[in-house]
Amino acid sequence: MKKLYNLKKGLPLFLLVFCCVALVQESAAQINPLRAIYFQNQYLANPAMAGVTGGFKVNLHYRNQWGSISDAPSTEAITAEYGLSNKVGLGVNLGQTREGLIKRARAMATYSYHLPLNQSTRQLHFGLSAGVVNEQLDMDEMVGDVDDQTVARFNDQGPYVEGEVGVAYTDSKLTIQGSFPNIRAFLDKSLNESNTVNRSTYFAAASYKLTLGSSVGVEPKVVYRGVKGFDDLIDAGANLTFVDNQFNVFGMYHSSKNVTFGFGADVKRRLALTGMYTTGSSALNSLTGVKGSFELGLRASLWNVQ
Fold first, then answer.
1. Which of the chain's ends, N or C, has fewer CB atoms near its CB within 10 Å?
2. pLDDT number for residue 2
3. 179-183, long-range: CB within 8 Å, 24+ apart, which pairs?
4. Which helix (H) or strand (E) holds 116?
5. Res 271: pLDDT
6. Is the pLDDT confidence value at 142 over 60?
7. Which of 61-70, 137-146, 153-162, 251-260 has the weakest average pLDDT?
8. Residues 155-174, mean pLDDT to the nearest whole number
9. 85-89 own/partner pairs: CB under 8 Å, 24+ apart
């Protein structure tokens, strides 16, 4: 009877932890990644894009999801990238996500190599990132038995090493790219069952820039993303630029049955601000009071601006 009582006592906490883990699985799977990956900051999705345009750039990103819900998920990220030479780029990618009781921090360093082809505008790009990821349950926010072994095991896992690899082809108009975001899970198949965050399997994208007039351009883009345990996702849309790329509006449709739209302004190619809104997916829209997510991005280009 005592054993049965302990089981009943621990069951609510176990269900709480299970739900939190399920939530972070879906988010870390990048079903809803930062939308800046499409146009503003492609380095977020592919290490091969670090330093691809030269100069030194710093990007700040903030997103709040489902703001009508208490303790709604939020994400902050900062990237810095530097074109060390015409062929070598360096980058740093830092991020933090809070989802209910779970906090996830990530720090990655990147090396990229840009190989010119037979024409000056054609290049192949290769990138490799390595760093650490750490997940913890916030004990200060927990309501329940903080000494439960399920909680202890989750917090005792500690930081772990992670890696990413990416490639890309670019010319003056066309960009084709792909990346594998979680090398650790790819090499260690046992993590596919036990690890709660290594769920994104691959990222691929293609875009083409067109000129519509003397100061207007459009860049259609298609993205294909693999997520373990979910159907593959397709994102399709376009970025429309005005006044020599100083202003832009864009939109993307996601096969998760939601859309993203936003705008941006670039002041003298030194400081760019972007605002985006993503509607709730079809599953979330069925929940009363659940809204979409709002994201802000700020980019500073400090020198050697192209």
1. N
2. 38
3. 179/45, 179/46, 179/47, 179/48, 179/127, 179/203, 179/204, 181/30, 181/45
4. strand 102-116
5. 94
6. no
7. 137-146
8. 89
9. 86/54, 86/114, 86/116, 87/113, 87/114, 87/115, 87/116, 88/51, 88/112, 88/113, 88/114, 89/50, 89/51, 89/52, 89/113, 89/114, 89/127
